[in-house]
Design brief:
alpha+beta, Mannose-Binding Protein A, Chain A, 3 helices
């Protein structure tokens, strides 16, 4: 009997002892889980944040890449548009230059086409005075006053084109003289030797040493003679281009 009681009591201690150990083990396990959870949870949170950051970064990179492509395309479009505008500006510039050149030529033509009292004879413009008689120096001034000079001929064509228009009963001053040097007739328009001379037979003769100005005199036809510069007669002006 006593032996049985002792055995039962021992069994109770064993059971209660086992329960205490089990409870302690559970507590230890719970503490371990909590500890591990406290350690691992921040890591997991950090990993999650890192993953979200990577996803966000990838989205931003894709967005920036898309924007870069759009910007590059806009820049290409802008460059193309700029080139087209520059081509248009160059074309308009050429058109303006052509228009300015045309206007300039028109102005030059207008300058070369004088109004009255000039008339076109051949390829040039002349004024033939048929009413007022002046001396040679007066004729020089009269021609200058209307933008010309006393005529001096370049060739035989000009000479005959003019003389065909003259009245045969009148004499006309022309723009040659040898006032600077005897027998060296120069053109008043150029200051150089006259290009074309058609002297009457026996002229220039400088009668009495006082004939230094050229005129057109009609005999059987108009020819050049030297005469006294103070003599009054008609004159012929050539428009100064």
């Amino acid at each position: 009997m006593n032996t049985l009681f002792v055995c039962l009591l021992a069994s109770v201690f064993v059971v209660y002892g086992s329960e205490d150990n089990l409870q302690e083990s559970k507590q230890q396990n719970t503490s371990c889980v909590n500890y591990c959870s406290n350690i691992v949870k921040p890591v997991l949170n950090e990993t999650k944040c890192l993953s979200q950051f990577e996803n966000t970064n990838k989205l931003m990179e894709d967005k920036f890449a898309s924007q870069d492509k759009k910007i590059e395309q806009k820049l290409r479009d802008l460059s193309t548009a700029t080139e087209e505008i520059m081509q248009q500006i160059k074309l308009q510039g050429k058109q303006i230059e052509q228009q300015m050149e045309h206007l300039h030529k028109t102005d030059e033509v207008k300058k070369q086409i004088p109004g009255p009292p000039y008339q076109q004879i051949g390829s040039k413009y002349y004024y033939i005075e048929e009413s007022e008689e002046v001396n040679w120096f007066g004729a020089v001034n009269k021609c200058r006053a209307i933008g010309g000079h006393l005529v001096s001929f370049e060739n035989s064509d000009e000479f005959y084109e003019i003389t065909d228009k003259l009245q045969t009963n009148k004499d006309y001053w022309i723009g040659i003289n040898d006032l600077a040097k005897q027998d060296e007739f120069t053109s008043i328009s150029t200051g150089r030797r006259a290009n074309y001379l058609m002297w009457q037979s026996g002229d220039p003769n400088n009668v009495d040493g006082n004939e230094h100005c050229g005129e057109l005199h009609f005999n059987d036809r108009f020819k050049m003679i030297d005469d006294t510069c103070t003599k009054k007669q008609m004159f012929i002006c050539e428009f100064r281009n």
